Every structure is written in structure tokens, then in C-alpha cells.
């Protein structure tokens, strides 16, 4: 079962390394293209205001014990009362974020651009890999795998007796796709457009949902029990002074 | 707020540059990062870098940020010709820039032509209604013209949108205190304490305002906040120590004849008095007599 296939070093020279180099170069190219296509997006006043409200509500929750109970209560009412509380979002109005995003033409364009700049290079590279680098074993994965992975990793290799650890170049492509993120953040600095995996994760949990944030903050605020920490401070001040005087 | 380490670093660089030891560019970068207001030094050293073509080209793209920084410093020192030159250079390089438009507005403001500056700012705001700096410049202009009520109105409108901006709350608190609107000032200080609960400055200011408002409840709350200031500053804040003594005697006066809630107050007051005396002995021994007589009169 575990006969070791000896892989030609030419595979390493002509498949693995060129593939990695090409992916790095394409990543850098995409970074510069994205910089060129950067459109300055005017921030939406409503979203800015909501962001600030959330920060303020969060501060209120975090430091609630530092202000007198009356002030805390008045602020809590200001935020979460039923009529015009800042955090209160009546159920019907909770905007469907998807609809909101598509109705705003600028945002839709931006998203399209970002998606395109991600999809097209990926598709092209994948097609290129499949066309040129298929039909042979490219690398050996150092740990053993189950037979389930055979269809995924050994796509061009039509022998069913080859150990699943021997993979085709398609899997090397995927490995690079997800693995070069660290390299890019070294070369290009933190915020680079090649962060596909992050963007993919963002797309799946769709969009900035402000109404949910507000609701969450309101609930958090309602839960807070105000316990005024200041009386403790008098004792502590005494202790401090006693130590100082000695 | 600038932390202690940053402050020492800044002072060290300043001394170094003052004594001719180079490092002017690092100093300017640090000033810009910390947003401190050292306009004279920035003006002197920034201008010397800009006037030297070799040093200027060594900066690369940071040159334009330096122009902006020197322009603002020059306006602060009222050297408006230098400002005009800097802005001209920036305008040639970035013709349609909003940042340069903002500098132009500030120049008009520095010259004192309020109406034109107001027009410039409003037109910039039309393009981008969420530019925080321009809103704040309008408030500053209203304040400089002496129109405090307009400043308050503008600042309140600004805070309706940008309510997490603690510098704005601080400014508003200052304005209210200057107008003796202490209840509103107390509200602003509460906001500041909420956003930065470990900064003793805000506790102290809040306690001062509460003490000024008077009334038994406020005095007791003020005493608590003086105590928290003492705790946060390790007992070194003279004003808080005085505050404790004054508060305790004021409370005693107000609640004369009622049930005194002396839980731990006598100790705190005497401790504060002792700490004050020790402090004065160390630092201002000749004023110790004044202190002891003042403290004695309080304990009545």
C-alpha cells in the first residue's frame, strides 16, 4: 500500500515553483489594479450616525458604574424608550440589508467591481492550471488521508490504486490560494485586496446589518444592572491617603 | 490624551532639536501623530526643512503632508505670507483637493474675514456633509467671533451625529462652564467619564461642577468623585484633596441639625488635611501657615 513513488525533481522545478510564482505575481497585479480602481465612496450619514450611536451605547454599558444612578437611568431611557429611543428599531422597519445595498447604485457598483476583481483572476488561473498541469502527480502530502479525498485531490490522475497522499497540481493551486495570504500581508502591508478568504467569509455572512446591531446594543443596555462604584472609591481613597501619609 | 511615555518622548525630541542635534523630521512626525499644538517649533523647523531643496526632495511624498502641517502652524503664529505660499504650492499639486480647500478656508478664518470663511466652509460641506474637521472649524469660528450661543448650537448639532467624539464633548463642557450652565456641563462631563473612565481629569472637573451646583446630594456625589480622583492619581492631586476638605465642611454645614451620615467622612477629611500639610511642607513650606489657618476655619 505504501510504496513510495519517486517523483521527478523536474516536477518541482517546472510545476510547483512556477505555479506559486505566478499566483504571487497575479496577487500583486490585482492589488495595484484595485488601487487604481478605488472610488471614493461618500459615507452615508445614517450609517455614520448609527455607528456613533453604537459606540456611545457601548461606552455607556461599559462604564455605567462610574456615573450616578440617576444619570445612568436617564441615559438608558434616552436610548431605549419605545417612542423615540435611539436604539429602538420597530419591527416592521428593520431594513432588509440586501435590498438596501442593491438600491444604492454606488454600493452595488463597488461590490460588483470587487467581486469581479476576485472572480476573474481565480477562474483564469484555475483554467490555466487545469489545462497545463493536469494528468500527473504533482506532490505528496506528508500525512495520510482517507479515500474520501481522492476525488478532490487527485482529479487528473485516473489510477485508483495510487495513495491519496499523492495529489495533483489542482490541490497545489488551492493550497496556494489560501496560503499566500500571509505572504501578501508581508509584501503588501496589511490591507490588501488579495484577501479573498476574508471577502468570501464576508459574503457568506451577508453585509453590514445595522438594525441588528442596534437591537443587540439595546438588549445589552436593558440587561445592565447599575451598581454605583463610587462609594467604594471613598474607601480606596482613604487607603491611598493613609499609605501616602506614612 | 497624550500618555506619559509619549510626552517624555516628545520633550526629549524637542530638546534634541532645540540644541541643534538634528531629528527635526522625527519630531514633526511625532507632533503630527499625537496632534499636539507646538506651532512655533513646527513652524521654525518645518520651514527650515522646506526651504532646503535637498532635504525637501529627501522627503518624497511626505513633502505635501509637511506643507500642510507648516501651513497650519504658520496660521497659528500669524505668519500669513508663509501660509499663502504653502497653500499655493499645494494647490498647484492638488488642484481639486478638498483638503486644500479646507486650508483656504482656514486661511480666510485666520485673516479674520469671517463671512468669506463661512461661505467657503458651507460650500465644502455641501460636497461632503460628514467632514468632521470642517464642522469643528465652524464651531471655532463662532466662538472666536464671540457668538457663544451659535457655537453651542453648532456643537450640539455636530454631537447629534458624531456623539462618540469626546473632544467635542470636552469643548462643550468648557463652554457651558464659562456660561455658568452647570447642569449641562455636568451632563457633558458624565459623557466624558463614560467614554474614558480612568482619566482623573474628568472626575475632578465633574466634582468641581457638582460642588458648584450645591445641594446636599450634589455635595455628597462631589465628595465621592473627589475621592475617586485621589484614588486615580495616588493622592497627589492637591485640588482633589482641597475638594474633599471643602465638601466635607459644606456637607456638615448643610446638614446641620439633621442626622449626619458620618460613615467614613471624618477620617477622609482628616487624612486629606494631613496629606495636604505634608505636601505643602515639602513643596511650599512658607505657605504652610496659610494652609493650617484655612483648614482650621473649615473644620468649624
UniProtKB/TrEMBL annotation, chain A:
Subcellular location(s) of the protein: Membrane
SMART domains tied to this protein: DUF106 (SM01415)
KW Transferase (keyword) present: no
Keywords: Membrane, Transmembrane, Transmembrane helix
Record membrane topology: Multi-pass membrane protein
InterPro entries: EMC3, EMC3/TMCO1
Pfam families referenced in this protein's UniProt entry, alphabetically: EMC3_TMCO1
Domain of life of the organism encoding this protein: Eukaryota
Main localization (coarse): membrane
Segments crossing the lipid bilayer: 14-33, 119-143
Keyword Membrane included in the entry's annotation: yes
Family: Belongs to the EMC3 family.
PANTHER family assigned to the protein according to its UniProt record, in alphabetical order: ER MEMBRANE PROTEIN COMPLEX SUBUNIT 3
Entry protein name: ER membrane protein complex subunit 3
From TrEMBL, chain B:
PANTHER family according to UniProt: TETRATRICOPEPTIDE REPEAT PROTEIN
Gene3D superfamilies, A to Z: Tetratricopeptide repeat domain
Source superkingdom: Eukaryota
Localization: Endoplasmic reticulum membrane
InterPro entries: EMC2-like, TPR-like_helical_dom_sf, TPR_EMC2
Bilayer topology annotation: Peripheral membrane protein
Physiological role: Part of the endoplasmic reticulum membrane protein complex (EMC) that enables the energy-independent insertion into endoplasmic reticulum membranes of newly synthesized membrane proteins.
Taxonomic source organism: Hibiscus sabdariffa (roselle)
Main location: endoplasmic reticulum
Keywords: Endoplasmic reticulum, Membrane, Repeat, TPR repeat
Family in the record: Belongs to the EMC2 family.
Pfam families: TPR_EMC2
Protein name as catalogued: ER membrane protein complex subunit 2
Domain EMC2 TPR-like residues, every copy: 100-209
Assembly description: Component of the ER membrane protein complex (EMC).
Amino acid at each position: 500500500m505504501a510504496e513510495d513513488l519517486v517523483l521527478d525533481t523536474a516536477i518541482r522545478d517546472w510545476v510547483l515553483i512556477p505555479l506559486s510564482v505566478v499566483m504571487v505575481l497575479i496577487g500583486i497585479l490585482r492589488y495595484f489594479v484595485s488601487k487604481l480602481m478605488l472610488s471614493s465612496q461618500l459615507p452615508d450619514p445614517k450609517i455614520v450616525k448609527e455607528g456613533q450611536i453604537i459606540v456611545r451605547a457601548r461606552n455607556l454599558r461599559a462604564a455605567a458604574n462610574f456615573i450616578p444612578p440617576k444619570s445612568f437611568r436617564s441615559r438608558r431611557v434616552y436610548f431605549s424608550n419605545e417612542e423615540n429611543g435611539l436604539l429602538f428599531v420597530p419591527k416592521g422597519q428593520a431594513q432588509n440589508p440586501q435590498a438596501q445595498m442593491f438600491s444604492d447604485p454606488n454600493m452595488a457598483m463597488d461590490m460588483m467591481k470587487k467581486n469581479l476583481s476576485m472572480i476573474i483572476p481565480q477562474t483564469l488561473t484555475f483554467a490555466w492550471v487545469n489545462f497545463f498541469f493536469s494528468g500527473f502527480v504533482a506532490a505528496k502530502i506528508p500525512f495520510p488521508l482517507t479515500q474520501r479525498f481522492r476525488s478532490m485531490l487527485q482529479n487528473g490522475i485516473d489510477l485508483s490504486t495510487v495513495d491519496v497522499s499523492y495529489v495533483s497540481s489542482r490541490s497545489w493551486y488551492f493550497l496556494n490560494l489560501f496560503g499566500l495570504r500571509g505572504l501578501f500581508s508581508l509584501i503588501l502591508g496589511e490591507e490588501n485586496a488579495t484577501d479573498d478568504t476574508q471577502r468570501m467569509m464576508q459574503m457568506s455572512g451577508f453585509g453590514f446589518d445595522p438594525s441588528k446591531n442596534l437591537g443587540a446594543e439595546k438588549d445589552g443596555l436593558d440587561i445592565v444592572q447599575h451598581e454605583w462604584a463610587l462609594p467604594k472609591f471613598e474607601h480606596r481613597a482613604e487607603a491611598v491617603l493613609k499609605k501616602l501619609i506614612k | 490624551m497624550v500618555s506619559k511615555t509619549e510626552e517624555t518622548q516628545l520633550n526629549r525630541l524637542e530638546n534634541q532639536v532645540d540644541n541643534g542635534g538634528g531629528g527635526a523630521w522625527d519630531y514633526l512626525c511625532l507632533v503630527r501623530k499625537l496632534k499636539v499644538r507646538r506651532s512655533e517649533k513646527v513652524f521654525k523647523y518645518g520651514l527650515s526643512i522646506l526651504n532646503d531643496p535637498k532635504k525637501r526632495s529627501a522627503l518624497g511624498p511626505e513633502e505635501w503632508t509637511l506643507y500642510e502641517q507648516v501651513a497650519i502652524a504658520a496660521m497659528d503664529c500669524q505668519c500669513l505670507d508663509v501660509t499663502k505660499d504653502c497653500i499655493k504650492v499645494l494647490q498647484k499639486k492638488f488642484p481639486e483637493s478638498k483638503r486644500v480647500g479646507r486650508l483656504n478656508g482656514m486661511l480666510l478664518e485666520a485673516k479674520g474675514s469671517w463671512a468669506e470663511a463661512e461661505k467657503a466652509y458651507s460650500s465644502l460641506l455641501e460636497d461632503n456633509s460628514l467632514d468632521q474637521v470642517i464642522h469643528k472649524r465652524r464651531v471655532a469660528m463662532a466662538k472666536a467671533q464671540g457668538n457663544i450661543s451659535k457655537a453651542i448650537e453648532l456643537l450640539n448639532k455636530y454631537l447629534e451625529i458624531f456623539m462618540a467624539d469626546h473632544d467635542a464633548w470636552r469643548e462643550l463642557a468648557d463652554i457651558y462652564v464659562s456660561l455658568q450652565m452647570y447642569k449641562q456641563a455636568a451632563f457633558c462631563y458624565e459623557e466624558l467619564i463614560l467614554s474614558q473612565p480612568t482619566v482623573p481629569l474628568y472626575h475632578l472637573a465633574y466634582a468641581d461642577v457638582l460642588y458648584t451646583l450645591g445641594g446636599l446630594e450634589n455635595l455628597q456625589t462631589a465628595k465621592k468623585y473627589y475621592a475617586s480622583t485621589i484614588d486615580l492619581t495616588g493622592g497627589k492631586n492637591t485640588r482633589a484633596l482641597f475638594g474633599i476638605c471643602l465638601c466635607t465642611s459644606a456637607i456638615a454645614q448643610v446638614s446641620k441639625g439633621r442626622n449626619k451620615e458620618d460613615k467614613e467622612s471624618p477620617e477622609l477629611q482628616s487624612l486629606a488635611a494631613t496629606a495636604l500639610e505634608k505636601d505643602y511642607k515639602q513643596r511650599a513650606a512658607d505657605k504652610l501657615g496659610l494652609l493650617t489657618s484655612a483648614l482650621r476655619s473649615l473644620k468649624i
